[in-house]
Amino acid sequence: MGVRALWYENGQLVLLDQRRLPHTETYMRLDTCREVAQAIKDMAVRGAPAIGVAAAYGFALGMAEGLTPEECRDVLASTRPTARDLFSALEFMYRNSSRADEAARQYHEMVVGACRRIGELGAEYMPDDGCVLTHCNAGALATVEYGTALAPIRHAVASGKRLRVLVDETRPWLQGARLTAWELAREGIEHHLIVDNAAGHYMRLGEVDAVIVGADRIALNGDFANKIGTYEKAVVAHENGIPFYVAAPTTTVDAGLETGDSIPIEERPGSEVAVLWGRRICPEDTPVRNPSFDVTPAKYVTAFITEKGVVTPREIEGVVHGR
Ligand code: MRU
Fold first, then answer.
1. Which residues of the chain have pLDDT under 50?
2. Which are the contacts of 6, defined by CB distance < 8 A and separation ≥ 6?
3. Whether pTM exceeds 0.85
4. Ligand 1: does its nearest atom lie under 6 Å from the Cβ of 222?
């Protein structure tokens, strides 16, 4: 059995606390909607699809506590602004609030099924023998199971391709170093950790055959938001003629957004950047800016790998609208 970021058991949401990885595998047992909201805010669970599934169960817990559907929705919607999946999940739960437990399970299965399919469809685009670079963690931890960006890698390796993965450490939360490397190491997939600033170096040297990342929100024109630093990787990949793939379920597409310009970008506390290993790394009075995501224009995307097919940015709108 691969990694599972969360599951529902005996009326509780059980979450693998991702803040404590890779050192400790600790599970949190959450009983209330507000506890789930806090866990999302504090990044015990993170990654767009996993946030969505956690929120679906949080909604179901809220309904069991006697909150109204509006209260469940509002408590959970105020946690993190960028990941579209959070809102996709809440809209689904709101529509199905009269059967919340069953709806949460259904949403969960839908996301896991989508990621499995992304793996199957995306594996074909991975090199037969080569190196793939990824940013942040878009693995099982970010999606509950399989992953988005990591799913095609897993599937390709399982079907005999010889892949090596370059893992950006992903400051400031180090999702690459702490989470992606942990997932790959557990499965014996060959990888190297690099500092974020080394990605361009390896691309220019010709050592990277493809870049694959996840997404937090995709606009109808194919612009997308993902972990801060993704934009730079896309530009450098383009400059070096390297294919750049974005793997995401269609729950990440925002059907109400024409372009990426109005994607809400979460600003997180400056302390996440200024304090490293318990010590401040800059003068006390140095102000910090800490955007958690950036927007990559559609022109840098070779293809979106979704559960409904592999499409160009121009085709993404048709996929969501079933055309
Ligand atoms: O701040 P995080 O860790 O929630 O950000 C996660 C990412 O940016 C992932 O790359 C994205 O959600 C895609 S996850 C399948």
1. none
2. 13, 14, 15, 16, 45, 50, 53, 54, 57, 144
3. yes
4. no
